[in-house]
Amino acid sequence: MNDGPDTLKARLGALWRRQLIMPSLLVAICLALYGWIRSLHLDAIEQRSLNAPVIAHLLIQHVELTLAAAAMVVAVAVPLGVLLTRRIARPLTAPIVNVANVGQAVPSIGVLVLLAIVWGLGFWPAVCAFALYSTLPVLRNTMVGLSQIDPAIIEAGRGMGMSGPAVLTRIELPLAVPVMLAGIRTALVILVGTATLATFVGAGGLGQLIVTGNNLGRTPVLITGGVLSAVLALLVDWLAGMAELLLRPRGL
Amino acid sequence: MSSPAQARPMIRLEALSKRFAHQRRLAVDNLTLDIYAGEIVVFVGPSGCGKTTTMKMINRLIEPTSGEIYLEGDNVTHVNPNRLRRHIGYVIQQIGLFPHMSIADNIAVVPRMLGWDKARIGRRVDELLHMMGIPAHEYRHRYPKALSGGQSQRVGVARALAADPPVLLMDEPFGAIDPITRKHLQDEFLRIQGEVRKTIVFVTHDIDEAIKMGDRIAVLREGSHIAQYDTPEQILTHPADDFVRALIGGSATLKRLALSRVGEAVLQSVPTAREGADTEHADGLLLIDAQGHPQRWADDTDARAIVTVSADATLQEALDALLLAPRGRAVVVDAHGAYQGVVDFDTVAGYVRHSAASLAQGEAQTQ
Questions:
Q1: Is residue B2's pLDDT more than 50?
Q2: Is the Cβ–Cβ distance between B205 and B46 less than 8 Å?
Q3: A3 to chain B: nearest residue by CA?
Q4: What residue spans define the domains of chain A?
Q5: Hey, are the CB atoms on A161 and B85 less than 8 Å from each other?
Q6: Nearest-CA distance from A85 to chain B in Å?
Q7: Is A13 or B37 the better-scoring residue by pLDDT?
């Protein structure tokens, strides 16, 4: 793919050829799940969970939790990463990365429950807990992406009379985009997974199917929740992978 | 001593000093230096002598601790450094092309900052690529990764020249390039400089490169103290002290030969005749064809016994050819390959003695 002309069309063509395996697989899994559920005789409790409006509602909740947390992570971690790679902020780099490390090391359910105790139940406490938990990959990759840039490129920019902000926006950030996108992709996958815990603080999501199925001993409900969470995580990973390929600056 | 008698220098460094944080010694210690318009001044010295620091103070990538910098007579020590740098070309050893920008966009960076219109930028990019010998239509829209090392630095030089700045700073620009390409780039750059006549500050640690590129050489020792600031000829024939002598190394005379062209020496002449004339087999007779191209020595049927050198070649190259020439002499030909004369070891030695004498005489007159 690096040999031919690096145009959007060429990139889409390459995607078309290579990237269709995963979505086909996911569609097949969903169809198999649907067929299996249809073949079962569902009781009243199962029917209350396994119907299209409920599943759609939970799925949308799950996606909303994920996207809201991801937006929060990007809004916080990218500027923070930029600040921490400026020369003046060098003394702050290690402490803040350590804090982010701790955020990642604490079990996500712990962060979630603690925040819920302090703040209460609901959507935003859940989003904040997940965001806190998945800041590290974006922060770290932003910092790595910016600091791995050949200093000669930055010196050339400065030497030609580009201002500090111009060097940042026109050289440093575009060159860091691939690494930053990889971090955002990791964060998204972590978020889709951890969002299944939102049900414990009353924020819904696909985790609700898993918990209901488990508590009431209804295996089809449990399996549906588990499979759909996994499919959603793989789908998000696939979409993020495509975004990485499409948004990578040309010439790299 | 040999500085041009112009009214004011293009670049004037006045009592310039730099002390880096946490260092006791001054990296640059009270340097005063004038650089005149259109000349290439080479800063040469051992690593750590402060030559790069000195150069980077001219475009204020490094801010001086004390002293003043004048550009075309204006004190630029405290002006906005970004605006200053847009009028000073900058070429570095690592080249530093922007990998995510096309070659045209790389070259266009400074003109865009200066607000040139699109058509003018496009014309300038094509003109510069042409000047650098890079086919514009093929490379304009490609990315730096498509370029070889030599091509990259050509684009680096084009980028520095883009807005036609009067001054160019070059920090070991050909240092990371293989020797064959380096020689080629040096020759090419001297040709381009013949056209554009920029004022150039050129940093290198390679004395041979300094001799080749410099109109004047500033030999710097630790703290950017000037050991000698003079033309390459003067530095080679009259090194100021042991430091300069050590930097030149053991073969100053051989190095001087690289400064002179064969055509500048007094050539020997030999009798010539058209091939097929009845004077064949005469001793030392050179047979030439209708266009004046040397064919063979009359007393030698083997055409390979003739070694030719171009009148444009340096005397060093001529000497190199002579060492392998069967008769210890080489036929000098002009750009069209026509006979001009003959060079031998005596020619080279005579030229060296003569030029050393005339340099000494010139010095005696100026003192």
A1: no
A2: yes
A3: B146
A4: 45-247
A5: yes
A6: 19
A7: B37
